[in-house]
Amino acid sequence: MPAPTRQLRRGHGRSTLRDVAEAAGVTSITVSRFLREPALVAEETAVRVRAALVQTGYVPNKQAGLLASGVSNIVAALLPNLANSIFAETAQGLSDTLQAAGHELLIASTGYSLEREEEQLRALLGWHPAAVVVTGRRHSPGAQALLASAQQAGTPVIEIWDWQLPSERAAQRAAGSRNPFTQIGFSHDEVGRAMAQHLLDAGHRHLAYVDSGIAEDYRAHERGLGFAARARSAGAEVSVLVAPPGDPFNAGREMLQRLLAGPAQGSGGEHDGPGARAGSRRGRGESSGSGTGTGTGSQGSAPRPSRTAKGAGGRSAVTAAAFANDHLASGALLEAARQRVAIPGRLALLGFGDFAWSRQLDPALSSVALPRYDIGVAAAQALLAARRGTPPAERALQWQLVARASTAARR
Amino acid sequence: MPAPTRQLRRGHGRSTLRDVAEAAGVTSITVSRFLREPALVAEETAVRVRAALVQTGYVPNKQAGLLASGVSNIVAALLPNLANSIFAETAQGLSDTLQAAGHELLIASTGYSLEREEEQLRALLGWHPAAVVVTGRRHSPGAQALLASAQQAGTPVIEIWDWQLPSERAAQRAAGSRNPFTQIGFSHDEVGRAMAQHLLDAGHRHLAYVDSGIAEDYRAHERGLGFAARARSAGAEVSVLVAPPGDPFNAGREMLQRLLAGPAQGSGGEHDGPGARAGSRRGRGESSGSGTGTGTGSQGSAPRPSRTAKGAGGRSAVTAAAFANDHLASGALLEAARQRVAIPGRLALLGFGDFAWSRQLDPALSSVALPRYDIGVAAAQALLAARRGTPPAERALQWQLVARASTAARR
DNA sequence: TTGAAAGCGCTAACAG
DNA sequence: CTGTTAGCGCTTTCAA
Q1: In contact, A164 and A188? CB cutoff 8 Å
Q2: What angle, rounded to 10 degrees, do the helices at B43-56 and B28-36 form?
Q3: What pLDDT, in 10s, does the model give residues B228-244?
Q4: Strand D bases within 7 angstroms of protein beta carbons
Q5: Which of A167, A324, B60, B273 has the most CB atoms in a 10 Å sphere around its CB?
Q6: Could you say which nucleotides of strand C lie within 7 A of any protein CB atom?
Q7: What is the pTM of this model?
Q8: Contacts of B109 by beta carbon, 8 Å cutoff, 6+ apart
Q9: What are residue A169's phi and psi, to 5 degrees?
Q10: CB B324 within 8 A of CB B333
Q11: pLDDT (tens digit, 9 = 90+) per residue, B316-351?
């Protein structure tokens, strides 16, 4: 029988370029060449190489190839979560687009923790990825430094699910506070304002925003801030409530109770993330009350007293609520149906995310449709472009407020 | 100014072990050692190394490390889809468990295509992963060969979301038909049978199974086959229908119509996958009719004529339907509510997957709760065990038929 | 059209 | 406790 040809420190039984070369009666460089530039190899040789390739079941070792060439095709992506349909679809968009371009996706989840983000980032950067995709614009100082140096070393860094106005970014850059990475997403402040505007337009003056309660989800908080700011500047009353943890549908059901009970039931701080503007702390507890803003009501409908009962706090009862996501909103809507609370008559309900079932409910839930999948596709495209030397364009992606029965205008 | 220290073919600006060593006044092996076995380095030296590490912002190059040591910590996973909550949660389970163990997750989606699976597998194997996770037990011949040789080379291969009885597997092995990989999941045939049994127990004799219409999702078809087999052997009538493509909620709504119209409306072949048992083709179109099986009704309730009208085909109208997933079932349930069709009075509805909203509907949807997240965790644990030399245990994971109002027994 | 030599950044083995 | 040497499997020169 053939003696085991096991050399010192030789890999784990997988055949190498040299094995193929031996079988084909050439040197390894010829096989390597055949694999990358078949045109440069004589047809006669090619035939033998092809046969040897099949015979040995050769699978190229990418670490070796990458080490030698310095060219990576791995893209590292960091998402808060893979199970949430929001990020799952983004992952799918990334995966589809990257696969089509021959890249591979190394993925990690952070559970919304900046600490875990930094840790994972450190691990992923060790693969010298062709590009890095992170979620959001806020990172730990360490992560920020890692990203900056990666970017400097030529690895494009892309921030998804967030977007700042160019002017904002220029200001920050001037202040030297951070490195400008490519952003692909949308402004959560803007969405929050649009959500408020939508409810104002429907004639509501007593609004509430229900936050998800995930402390580190600063984007949800920003929507809440935008919502409250717009409402106040229109002279409306706003409460910000925080949903309890646990099943979000049940949390939504519970929130319906609190909303009906009146604004004074609102609770919970605003969970400003670590990057919140200094000096903007308003203390814990409910932030509510009429705004000191300028406008009194922008689009037509003048303020009008609510026909509903006064809430517990002595202030008027909330007549319209916006939620951090469709799960919460749906829970509230289902609970309202069970209790025969008129939607939108007694309370208008507005979600965020526009999940597939939202339009199926009765009444159908108004929501904000998000470019979930497209964010992944656009991020992949931007990073592919960056690799080709094209400076990747910032992209504010389109979202859309989808008005359905749950926020139909009051008559 | 300092001369650019750019050496020939030197990497891309990132600092290497040698840079750190120089800064610390030692050789690279000492730094390497410090990183892996700090105890072996003198404290004095360690101090200088630590400083140099920080100063240079060193990030270890994993390809080089892996190439030199032959030890990989990458796990490659192939899933049909990342956006579907079923696989998204599995991905999360994998990610969480793997991250905790210091492994990294290289992920790819196949869109249920065996061809894409093989292609992706080939690409991922190039990273010499520590283990490979694939979905299901059916693969293209090429993929099968790749997996077998990977397994032989010492890379554990784990098949998730499916499970066969040890006896079945032994038979297959004896027939030499395939390599035995570790399976972590459950038997879809068994689930299908349980779904039928549940409806039979509730007194139904005219059943239907609604398939998802994804041709390559053989697991859904197997559930359908198990469902039909159990129903027939109990002497009940069964139709197998196939949902149209597009939004699954809307498809479910449409299917309600067809179910109410009677069994003759059923259509679509059974989409047996490429691995279906030879000789089992029953031709296209609806497979229906009373079974030639043995039992007449197992658990109590004797066959009882339906009180509802006769269907179009002259046979009795369907009184209970099981669906390939909760999306379809929910669509049907919502449509029934809209049309004031009594659920479960006129038609009992049973889903699969037990998604979060299913229990929120009215009536609440009966469904099969799946170990979505746990499959990921168990797969990760099995592969971790395999790496430690423990032969990974096959695991049939628990599912549970959750009976709710939508299939409450007829009175 | 093919090959030889050198090196990517790191680690295993063996000295010292 | 630290260093030297060789080599992981591949690709990049450069030469024939």
Answers
A1: no
A2: 100
A3: 999 999 999 999 999 99
A4: 1-5, 7-13
A5: A324
A6: 1-5, 7-13
A7: 0.85
A8: A92, A95, A96, A99, B78, B79, B80, B81, B82, B120
A9: -70, -40
A10: no
A11: 799 999 999 999 999 999 999 999 999 999 999 999
